[in-house]
C-alpha cells in the first residue's frame, strides 16, 4: 500500500468510527432503539387511598418513590376531583399531597405512575456513613436484645452477616426465648430488625417495597430493611434474609415516616393495583429524553414538515452509494449519473409497481412525441422546452384517466421530476437515433435496475428508521463511497468485455 | 462467459477505474481538457505547433451565418463537417463530391443544401455536444486516403489510434470500417481493430467483435499485408501531441493522407480500453515502464519514438 494514502485511510476509518460511535452514544443516551418497532415493557401502577372524611379541612400525604433502583419514572398523575394536588420534593422524600377545604363521607383518591424497568445504576455512596440511631428498650426487652445480639455478633463478621444471623434468630419457629420475647413486644419483624441492627452499631432503616406482578389488584407494600455496608445501602428481606433488590420490587418509600398521612379523615387504607403494558421504544425515548443533547440535535426537534423533508434527504446518501457501487464496481450503464436516485425517490412516493408502470408509460409516450418533434426541425432548447410542456400534459392526462378508472396510483405520477423526465426522453431519443434501440434498452433498463435496487433498500423499514434516527450513520456511507472512489480494479462488466482476452492468455 | 480478474491482471489489462484514477486523474490536468474536447481548439493548437492536420476551411459559430453557407461552400468540392465539441464521431458528415446542386456523402447518400443547413443548425444548438451546450461547426478539407489501405476498409475511414503516455507512444491500433460497422470505425459497432507493432507498424493481431480475424471480413484481404508507410513519422506526430497539449495520457487519432502523409484528426483525453483487445495484451506493463523512465533523457519526440521502437518491439507478428 502506498504510504501517501495513509491519511486517506485514516480519514475513512475516522468517518466510520465517528459515525458508529455517535450512533451508539445516541442509542445509549436517549435509548432510541436500533430496530424499528421495538416494544418496551412499562409498569402502570395505581395507588388507591380510601378514607372517611370528617367534614373538615382535609390533607392527605402519600410517600412517593424517589429514584427507585431499577426503575425510571416516565409519567405520573393524580385523579381526584375536587382536591388540590401537588408533588412535594424536599431533600428527604417525594410526597404527593391532596388538599381540600371541606369534605365529608367516604373518599377515594388515585395516584397513577408509569415506570419503565432500567438497568440499575451504581448508586452514589453517601459521602460519610449515616448516623447510627440511638435505641431505647424497656426492661426486660433490653436484656433480651443484648443477649440476642451477643449470640448474633459472635457468629458474624460484617453488617450483612449480622443481619442474616439476626433474621435467622427471629424466624417464627426459632427456639430462642429472647427472640420470642422481643417479637411479642415488637410484632413487626422489620422494625425489630432495624432496632437491633442500630443497637449493634449498624446504620439501618426500614423501607417499603412493592412487588410488581402483572394485573394484580389490592396489593400492599412489603416492609423491608436497608442497612449500611461498605458498599452503600443494602436491601435485605426481614423474613427470608434475601439480599439485594429483586427485579420486580419497586422501592416505594424510605425512612420512618408513615407512607400515608391523612389529616381530617379516619380509617384510611392504601392499596395498589398494577398492570404491565408495552409501548413503542421510540415513543418512550421521545417522552423521556426531550431535553437530551442528542434529542436537541436530532431531527425530531424540527417541525413535522421539515422532518418529512429530512426523511427523504437522509435516504439520498444510500441511493448515491448504490449508484456508485453499480457504476464503479458492476459497471452498469445508466442514462444520466444520478437520475436513478431521483426515480427511486419518486418510487418511494408512488410505490414500486405503479411507479414503474407510469414511468415506462410516460417515457415511452414521450419518446413517441419526441419522434414527431424531430420532424419539426426545432432548435434543441426549444425542443426540450416543448417536451417539458408535453410531459406535463401527458402526466395530467394519465392522472385524470387513472383517477376516473379508479386507480389512485394514476395521481402519483406527478411525483416524478418533470424536467428530469423531459431530459431523459431527449437523451434517450438521441441515443436511439445514434446508437439504436439496443443501447436505449441497455441504458434505460440499467437506470431502472439501479432505481429499483435503491428503492428496495430505501423502503426497508430498518433503513428508514436508521437513516432518520441516526443520521450520523451517513458518515459510514460517506466513508464507503470514498473507499469505492479509490477502487482501481476491474468492473464486473469488464470481466465480460475483456473475455476475448482469454485466447491471448498463453503465459501460464 | 466472463474472464477471471486475476488473468486480466496477469496480462496487464487496464480497466476503466484504473485508467481514470491512476492515469487520467494523475497525468491529465483538468483545465487542459477543452484543448482536446473542442476540435477547433485542437486544430488551431496543432497549426500553431506545426502538427499536420486537415486544413481548416471555415467555422460556423452563429445560427445566422447558416443562411449564407452556400457562398462559403461554393468553392469546395469535397469537405468534412464536424461539430467542435462532438464525441465518438457523432455528427460528422463527410461530403465526397457534388452532383449538380446536391452533395454526396461518403456513404453514397445524396443530400441537399437544406439538409446541411439543418445539420449545422442542430450542431450549433448542441445536439452532438456533451450536455447539450452550444457548439460550433468546423468545415475542413477532405482527406484523400493513402492507397496503402485499399482493400482493408469497407466504405469508411481507416484511422490509426495511438495511445501516448507522457510523450511516449505505448500502443497503436488501426481501425478498419466494415459492412457490419456501417462504415464507422467504432470497434463495438463491428469495425476491425488491428493491433500494430510499435517498432514496424505491421499487424500484430486483429479482432472483430472480440474474435480474432486474419482477413478483412468484407474484402477478404489478408491483414498480414498491412504495412503503414512512414510509421516513424506517424509515431512522431502522435508523440508531439503530448508536447502540444501537455496531456500526459492522450489518444491521438491519425489518418494517412495520400499527399500530405500522417495528419492528426482529433485527440482523446480518455483513450485506451478496446485497443488492448486488438493488440492482445494489456497497457499496464508499457505504462509502468514509461513511468519508471528518467524523462529528461528523452526531450524530443524523435528520441521518445526511437526509444519505444526499440523497447516495445513485438516478438512475433501475425
Automatic annotation (TrEMBL), chain A:
Residues 259-501 form the 7 transmembrane helices usually fused to an inactive transglutaminase domain. The chain crosses the membrane at residues 6-25, 312-332, 338-368, 380-401, 407-425, 446-467, 473-490. Pfam families: 7TM_transglut (PF14402), Transglut_i_TM (PF14400). InterPro entries: 7TM_transglut, Transglut_i_TM. Residues 26-183 form the Inactive transglutaminase fused to 7 transmembrane helices domain. Keywords: Membrane, Transmembrane, Transmembrane helix. This is Inactive transglutaminase family protein.
Automatic annotation (TrEMBL), chain B:
Coiled coil: none annotated. Residues 43-294 form the ATP-grasp domain. This is Alpha-L-glutamate ligase-like protein. GO terms for cellular component: cytoplasm. One of its GO terms (biological process) is SOS response. Keywords: ATP-binding, Ligase, Manganese, Nucleotide-binding. NCBIfam families: rimK_rel_E_lig. PROSITE patterns: ATP_GRASP. InterPro entries: ATP-grasp, RimK-rel_E_lig, RimK-rel_E_lig_ATP-grasp. It comes from Gilvimarinus xylanilyticus.
